[in-house]
């Protein structure tokens, strides 16, 4: 069997659309795969915020405690001498509680009184401690690879000698929401670890080990994003990390013992603050405490090179499948299927976040959206053209078939692929004396006359919901009840017969006939075989069976009885019920070629 060329063209179009969709995804995914800034970053950030809000805050590690230098502490300190001496007192109080490690989120970059620096250094020396340094970077979008500081604010040497030093920089999106923590920063003094990493390493007494995608802290492995950045799983609003006010340290020593303590400012207008999905103004110290909690294993979030490749693969697959579905399927099927696929993929991305995977929802939507839109527009145009062609084909078909049949065939190309038995009403009509009439009119006049006759038949039959199956020169065959709707088919057929008889006097006027030709009509209702005749290349609809034969014979009976219309008794009864003309006579008559007799109603009119 020969392949359908239209199907081949459709498959080629679907494949081309899918390939184009994959190429589109490859184009927009390139910055994401390399870690460069992209126009999709803002949308990705907003969709990530929605996931953070939908899944809510997480329980932080119980090993991290924040000592907050809050408004009350600042008010109590007012006018009490050097700030560093005061801070030294807080550090000493923390050291007295014997914590596992102390991270001080305070920059000591400016020189202070020597005695104050000595006091602070002495307090720091009593506890495993890390103090802050901060890098300053070139303006503009982040670059792939390790972050490189333009210059760095280092703590004063006298203080730095008493503790380790760690970078407090975080990477934010354009709205200022923290997204990544660089674990290593390239400074003028070489590679410098982050404050959070230094603190956790000191607390667990294990050195950090890196490869290209992973941080190892003892037996624990944490996947890292490009450039050894830790994707931040923001834990919650202010207060989510267990917090002790600096003024209450003396009463909370047991809560600090053995813990990783973070000391930082939370007072108004002091220290860094960040907008997050949970808090419009989260203190920087609490943000770093949350990062330490994450490094200790609470709320891991994975976005690394492998996850970025998964993003591209998922977006490409969804875009290709959606585009192919819209191109290959009817728009009413393909478009809902494509949208359902996008929503299912988006749901999977959403649920993956609960398992600690940060997948790029923006890339998924941007990858599928434009190809799906273009494929939908193209498919709509194709279907509009196909509908227009089909409409023209149906109109053309109606010239060769009854409009009722044409609609049935157009709506169901398999109509009557197998013969069917139907209860229909069959009407035959024939012109009386047509041979003599055609001789008198000549070929052209006969053609004109027959056109008028056929027009009369179609008007009468179609006006009552019937279908003309065949014109046979000076006769016609019609059926009623083909669609199964439209009321009493027998009464409709009888009404059509009366309409034919009433219109007959108008026949031949254009040819100047002195006397119009006569008509004979036969109508009978009953089961018929409705089928296609012909081979696969040319077919026509036909009816057969005893009902058809009897309707034809009723025309002969009408002629023999001097009537114009003859119908079987059930048809006449349907006409009486419908209030149509009563018959002029009812007879029980034999039918030529058929056993038994038939009750026949006759109208002489």
Give a verbal description of the structure.
With 605 residues, the protein is α+β, with helices and mostly antiparallel strands. The chain has 3 domains: 5-51 and 305-384; 59-295, no CATH class; 411-603, Alpha-Beta Plaits (2-Layer Sandwich), CATH 3.30.70. It is built from 17 helices and 25 strands. The strands form 6 sheets. Strands 18, 19, 20, 21, 22, 23, 24 and 25 form an 8-stranded mixed beta sheet that branches. A hairpin with a 2-residue loop joins strand 24 and strand 25 (594-603). Helix 10 runs antiparallel to helix 11 and helix 15 packs across helix 17. 42% of the residues are buried.
Q: What general outline do the C-alpha atoms trace?
A: rod-shaped
Cα end-to-end separation: 59 Å
How much of the sequence lies in strands comes to 15-25%
Taking all Cα atoms into account, the compactness measure Rg is 46 Å
Provide the number of structural domains: 3
Give the low-pLDDT segments: none
Mean pLDDT score:
89
**If helices are DSSP runs of H or I spanning 4 or more residues, what is the number of helices?**
17
* E-strand count: 25
Largest beta sheet, briefly?
8 strands, mixed
Helix content: 40-55%
Structural class designation: alpha+beta
């Amino acid at each position: 069997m020969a392949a359908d060329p239209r199907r081949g063209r459709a498959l080629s179009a679907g494949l081309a659309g899918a390939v184009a969709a994959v190429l589109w995804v490859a184009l927009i995914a390139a910055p994401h795969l390399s870690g460069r800034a992209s126009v999709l970053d803002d949308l990705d950030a907003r969709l990530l915020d929605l996931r953070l809000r939908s899944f809510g805050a997480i329980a932080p590690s119980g090993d991290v405690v924040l000592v907050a230098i809050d408004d009350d502490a600042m008010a109590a300190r007012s006018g009490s001498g050097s700030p560093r001496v005061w801070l030294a007192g807080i550090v000493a109080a923390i050291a007295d509680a014997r914590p596992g490690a102390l991270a001080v989120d305070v920059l000591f970059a400016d020189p202070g009184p020597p005695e104050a620096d000595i006091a602070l250094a002495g307090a720091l020396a009593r506890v495993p401690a890390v103090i802050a340094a901060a890098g300053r970077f070139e303006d503009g979008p982040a670059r792939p690879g390790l972050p490189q500081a333009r210059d760095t604010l280092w703590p004063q040497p006298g203080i730095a000698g008493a503790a380790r030093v760690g970078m407090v920089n975080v990477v934010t999106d354009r709205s200022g929401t923290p997204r990544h923590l660089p674990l290593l920063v390239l400074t003028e003094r070489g590679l410098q670890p982050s404050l959070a990493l230094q603190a956790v390493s000191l607390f667990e007494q294990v050195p950090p080990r890196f490869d290209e995608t992973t941080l190892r802290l003892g037996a624990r492995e944490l996947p890292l994003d490009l450039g050894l950045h830790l994707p931040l799983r923001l834990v919650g609003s202010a207060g989510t990390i267990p917090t002790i006010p600096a003024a209450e340290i003396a009463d909370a020593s047991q809560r600090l013992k053995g813990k990783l303590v973070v000391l930082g400012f939370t007072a108004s207008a002091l220290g860094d603050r960040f907008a997050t999905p949970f808090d419009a103004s989260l203190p920087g110290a609490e943000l770093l405490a949350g990062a330490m909690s994450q490094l200790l294993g609470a709320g891991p979030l994975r976005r690394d090179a492998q996850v970025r490749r998964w993003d591209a693969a998922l977006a490409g697959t969804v875009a290709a499948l959606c585009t192919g579905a819209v191109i290959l399927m009817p728009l009413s099927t393909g478009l809902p299927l494509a949208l359902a696929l996008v929503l299912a993929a988006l749901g999977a991305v959403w649920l993956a976040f609960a398992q600690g995977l940060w997948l790029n929802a923006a890339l998924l939507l941007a990858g599928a959206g434009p190809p799906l839109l273009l494929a939908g527009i193209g498919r709509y145009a194709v279907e509009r053209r196909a509908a227009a062609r089909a409409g023209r084909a149906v109109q053309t078909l109606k010239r060769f078939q009854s409009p009722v049949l044409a609609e049935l065939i157009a709506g169901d190309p398999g109509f009557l692929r197998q013969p069917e038995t139907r209860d229909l009403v069959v009407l035959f009509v024939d012109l009386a004396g047509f041979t003599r009439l055609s001789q008198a009119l000549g070929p052209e006049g006969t053609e004109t006359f027959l056109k008028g006759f056929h027009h009369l038949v179609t008007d009468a039959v179609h006006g009552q919901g019937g279908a003309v199956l065949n014109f046979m020169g000076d006769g016609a065959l019609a059926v009623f009840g083909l669609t199964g709707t439209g009321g009493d088919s027998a009464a409709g057929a009888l009404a059509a017969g009366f309409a034919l008889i009433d219109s007959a006097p108008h026949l031949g006027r254009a040819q100047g006939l002195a006397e119009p030709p006569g008509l004979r009509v036969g109508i009978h209702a009953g089961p018929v075989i409705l089928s296609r005749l012909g081979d696969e290349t040319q077919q026509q609809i036909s009816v057969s069976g005893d009902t058809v034969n009897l309707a034809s014979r009723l025309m002969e009976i009408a002629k023999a009885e001097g009537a114009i219309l003859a119908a079987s008794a059930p048809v006449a009864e349907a006409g009486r019920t419908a209030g149509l003309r009563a018959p002029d006579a009812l007879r029980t008559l034999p039918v030529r070629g058929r056993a038994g007799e038939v009750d026949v109603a006759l109208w002489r009119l």
